[in-house]
Amino acid sequence: MEEKAKDKKFLVSVGPHIRSNVSVPRIMWTVSAALAPAALVSVYYFGVHALLVIAACILACMAIEAATQKIMGVKVSVTDGSAFLTGLLLGMNLPAGVPLYLPVIGAAVAIVITKHLFGGLGYNIFNPALIGRAFLMASFPKLMTTWPIPAGGQMLVDAKTGATPLGILKEEGYQKLLAHFTGQQDMYTSMLFGNRGGSLGEVSVLAILLGGIFLIAKGYINWQIPVSFIGTVAGLTWVFGGDPVLAMLSGGLVLGAFFMATDYVTVPQLNRAQLAFGIGCGAITVLIRLKGGYPEGVCYAILLMNCLTPLLDRAFKPKKFGEAKAAA
């Protein structure tokens, strides 16, 4: 027995101690595949220019990632899928009719400033795609709030534009929003399947929801953040006299809850901390929607909660048992 014990090699290292064969590239490409149906639905509703916006975001992110890594003298790793996913998410956060130079600017901010100036993949403290969107919103507010009306694949650059459901709700009230549909059921159905104005990722809630459930089933994301995020928005909206179903189906809530707020790097790692993170995102979203200057608050809610990620992990850190206390 002693001879066998001597021959046995033990590996002593820091966590994580539980490992799997799932690689970073596999996760990135799987998440992109889960988001692909929603992207295709947005192209169906908004036409070729929507496809060009998404393609421009992806190509710009990948090209800027490769150039940045080359300049920094590190291994070029665009094949890991992270830049592709950032570009896809950025594209889903833009209106369908934006000029194609906006995706390039947003990609530069997302990749160079938010990702690589913080140390590269795994070190950024904010979601790169959301920082790219927030920068574009602050720099080009008119272009970023011009919403083409979906026309079943017939959208051109000079298409008619209109307000989003959240914009109508904030400026004109619930009854005015309801008047745009044949009834409440028609409003819910239209928003579920994607026949309404908004960013590309605000279109088909059903397609995004199916992709999110697929990621949970695969074990790539946990349910805590999406459920607490969406549940908090619905609950607080109902408390303040609003329509909770409309709150869940409108804006970028479902996209943000499943694909943005679950980013591995920028959210807490502990389950209880993730529940608190989702609740915080939901509360800030409702606060901005009801009292803020913007009709939507998902982007800013996630970015603000990204700042609290280290504090949440520390606050919900498990207690150490058997630790000796220092004498008073």
Written account of the structure:
This protein is mostly helical and 328 residues long. Helix content is 62%, strand content 1%. It has 17 helices and 2 strands. The protein has a two-stranded antiparallel sheet. The longest helix is centred in the N-terminal third of the chain and has 25 residues, at 48-72. The protein starts with a helix and ends in a 13-residue tail after the last helix.
Topology:
Elements: H1 2-7, H2 24-46, H3 48-72, H4 82-92, H5 101-115, H6 128-139, H7 141-144, E1 147-148, E2 161-162, H8 165-172, H9 174-179, H10 184-193, H11 205-218, H12 224-239, H13 244-249, H14 253-260, H15 271-291, H16 298-307, H17 309-315
Antiparallel strand pairs: 1-2
Helix pairs in contact: 2-3, 2-4, 2-11, 3-4, 3-5, 4-5, 4-6, 5-6, 6-16, 11-14, 12-14, 12-15, 15-16, 15-17
Radius of gyration: 22 Å
Structural class: mainly alpha
The backbone outline, from C-alpha atoms, is globular
Strand arrangement across the biggest beta sheet: 1-2
> Considering DSSP H and I runs of 4 or more, what fraction of the residues is helical?
55-70%
Q: How confident overall, as mean pLDDT? A: 85
Taking the alpha carbons of the first and last residues, their distance comes to: 46 Å
Number of strands: 2
Order of helices and strands: HHHHHHHEEHHHHHHHHHH
Major beta sheet, specifics? 2 strands, antiparallel
